[in-house]
Specification:
Number of strands: 3
Strand content: 35-45%
Order of helices and strands: HEEEH
Helix content: 10-25%
Number of helices: 2
Number of domains: 1
Amino acid sequence: MTSGSEKIDDFIQEIQLKTNEWDDVVFEWIPYYQFKNNKVIGEDNCTTMYSAIWESDKLYRSEITENYTRDSNKKVVLKYLYSQNTVELLNEVT
């Protein structure tokens, strides 16, 4: 799955290539449709915060089997940044 932005996709791929330990966080693009029950929980002039249920939570890798698995229906907080500047967005992520 890709974001549709070459800069963002390249950034995600760069981070993924650095993932080599069993307990590293797997960085990936998550399409909006994987979130349900979105509710605004905070807002200012730069951001809006939402609570949501992520239908298929982040990937986890087992130390023993090295297989990847996902949990389902986890409550998460999403942060929407009011910026069209991709570099600013990527700096916020890292």
